Amino acid sequence: MDVKSYIKAARLRTLPLSVSGIIVGSFLGNQFSNSSILESSIFWLAMVTTIGFQVLSNFANDYGDGIKGSDKNRTGEARMVASGKISPKHMKNAMIITTIITIIVALMLIYVAFGKENFGFSILFFLLGIASIAAAIKYTVGKSAYGYSGFGDLFVFLFFGLLSVVGSYFLYTKQLNFLIFLPATAIGFLSTAVLNLNNLRDFDQDKINQKNTLVVKLGITKAKKYHFFLIFGALFASSIFVILNFSSVIQLLFLIAFIPLIKNLVTVAKNKQLPELDSELKKVALSTFLFAIIFGIVNSL
Q1: Is 297 in contact with 28 (CB distance < 8 Å)?
Q2: Residue 113: CA atoms inside 13 Å, Cβ hemisphere, count?
Q3: Which of 139, 169, 170, 162 is nearest to 54 (CA)?
Q4: Is the dihedral of CA 208, 211, 215, 219 positive or negative?
Q5: What does the DSSP assignment read for the chain?
């Protein structure tokens, strides 16, 4: 077994983005606790569970696009199934093993968070976990893969944004504060912006392979306007949360993370060669991760 190929298929550069919602939700949910978030079992189990979902999604994406032929002559990182470095059968086995491990960790998380006295919540979060696994696999796998029909953006917003932030917040508090949907929306928009950049970069190839992403449906000009909406939407949602919970000017430090994001908008607006947007993916993903850390810390002091 070529371990390096599986590590490449796991796409480690996507992991900071995947845990951004957990970071925000955990900081805000743990703010009234007497212990540090780094001492919280809920935090670490939620992080590992989310990473498991992301790795599964990346394996499934590699597998689904590989067997459909969508990764031929692609821009950016080489895909392992399409390149022949991992066979479809072995990638499917990797998906099964990752699913089993992730379910086990998720069950540990649910038990630590809810114990025996909140059985209803345990069932709810178990079902959400199953839904997350299904969403991770069905993005590109199967005839009805939603990533091929323009629904990828919606699922990223729901799972990376709303479920990640609101869900992790609920693990701590056992209750909902509807203001938490504002930072959840911000993370969802920023995560979707990364997907939109990815789909802009792959526009020509996706169109040839009949992968009807939202970018393919909208066209380049509208997709770029949509990208502006996502970035400014995230800025607006997070700013409203700070205004409604304002206690110190230090809370405005989260704006630092939007400096590279605004620069990204300039790059996208000026871009004429779509493959050149590949380098912007990492910038937006890491900016989202930076936003999550700063926003979580300054709003939980």
Answers
A1: no
A2: 31
A3: 139
A4: positive
A5: --HHHHHHHHTGGGHHHHTHHHHHHHHHHSTTSSS-GGG-HHHHHHHHHHHHHHHHHHHHHHHHHHHHTTTTT-SSSPPHHHHTSS-HHHHHHHHHHHHHHHHHHHHHHHHHHHTTTTHHHHHHHHHHHHHHHHHHHHTTSSTT-GGGTT-HHHHHIIIIIIIHHHHHHHHHHSS--GGGHHHHHHHHHHHHHHHHHHHHHTHHHHHHTT---HHHHH-HHHHHHHHHHHHHHHHHHHHHHHHHT---GGGGGGGGGHHHHHHHHHHHHH--SGGGGHHHHHHHHHHHHHHHHHHHHHT--
Contact call for residues 194 and 285 (beta carbons, < 8 A): yes
Paired tokens of 2: 């070529």
Distance CA 138, CA 40 (A): 32
Per-residue pLDDT of 146-187, as tens digits, reads: 888 889 999 999 999 999 999 999 999 999 999 999 999 999
| Residues 27-68 pLDDT 10s | 999 998 888 999 999 999 999 999 999 999 999 988 988 887
Predicted structure pTM score: 0.93
User: CB under 8 Å to 78, separation ≥6 — which residues?
Assistant: 8, 85
Structure tokens at 19: 């845990």
